[in-house]
Amino acid sequence: MKKVLIADDEQEIIELLRLYFEKDYYEVFGADDGFSALDVLKDNTIDIAIIDIMMPNMDGYALIKKIREKYKIPVIVMSAKSEISDKILGLELGADDYITKPCDPLEVLARVKAQLRRCLEFDNSEEEIVETITIGELKLYTDSCTLYKGSRQVPITSTEYKLLLLLMGNPKKVFTKKQIFECIWNEPFYGDDNTIMVHISKLRDKIEEDSKNPLYLKTIRGLGYKFEYKK
C-alpha cells in the first residue's frame, strides 16, 4: 500500500482527498503545516507528498526545501496561487508537478499515480541500465540515483534524476519537448507551459560552470535538448 502525505491547512481538503485515495487503497497521512509534515516524513516511509503553499508556521516553499535536503520522493504542489511565477518557483525548489486549486480530486489522484508509475518504471529498469553513466566530470549512479561532479555530490530531485537518466543515457541524441514531457511525466504534451524549461534551467545551475554557456546540457534551437560534453 502506497503512503501519501497531504500537507494542507484546510482539513476539509485533506479529508476529501482521503476519501478518494483510501478508496483506491492508498494510506493517507495529513498535516496542517510544514512542521507537522516533516514529523510525518520522519516517522513514516512516505511514497509521495502533496503540498499546499499557503500554510502557517512553515509554508509550502520552505517545506519543499526541507524535503529536498533529505528525501527523493515525488512532490506535487497543490495551491490556489496560480501565477506562472508561483509555478516556476515551486518547480525550481524541487517540486515535480503543480496543480492549481480548485481541482478535481480525481485529477489529483491521476497525477499521483502518474508520478508513482514513473518512479516504478525507473526502478524496474535499473537492471537494464549501466550502473554508472559518465560524461565529462559528471557521473550518474543509477543504483543510488545520485549525481557527482568530480568528487562532489550534486543534490538532485527525482524529476531531475529522470531527466538526466534520459539525456545522459542517450548522449548527443536530440529530444523534443514533447518527447521529454511524455517520457518523464507519462502524460500527453499539449503545449509549452514552461515546466521543462524550468527543470532544464535548474539542472544547468547545478551542473554547469556557466549556465548561460552550457558545456553539457545543450539547447538545439527549434528542436529541443541534448546532452554532450564539448569544451
Write the layout of secondary structure elements.
Layout: E1 3-7, H1 11-23, E2 27-31, H2 34-43, E3 48-51, H3 60-70, E4 75-79, H4 84-93, E5 97-100, H5 105-124, E6 132-135, E7 138-141, E8 146-149, E9 152-154, H6 158-168, E10 175-176, H7 177-184, H8 195-207, E11 217-220, E12 224-227
Parallel strand pairs: 1-2, 1-3, 3-4, 4-5
Antiparallel strand pairs: 6-7, 7-8, 8-9, 10-12, 11-12
Describe this structure in words.
The model is unreliable at 125-129 (pLDDT under 50). It contains 8 helices and 12 strands. A 5-stranded parallel beta sheet has the order 2-1-3-4-5, with helices on both faces. With 231 residues, the protein is of the alpha/beta class. It has 2 domains: 3-124, Rossmann fold; 126-227, Winged helix-like DNA-binding domain superfamily/Winged helix DNA-binding domain (Arc Repressor Mutant, subunit A, Orthogonal Bundle). Helix 4 (84-93) links the parallel strand 4 (75-79) and strand 5. 33% of the residues are buried. This is Stage 0 sporulation protein A homolog. The modification 4-aspartylphosphate is found at residue 52.
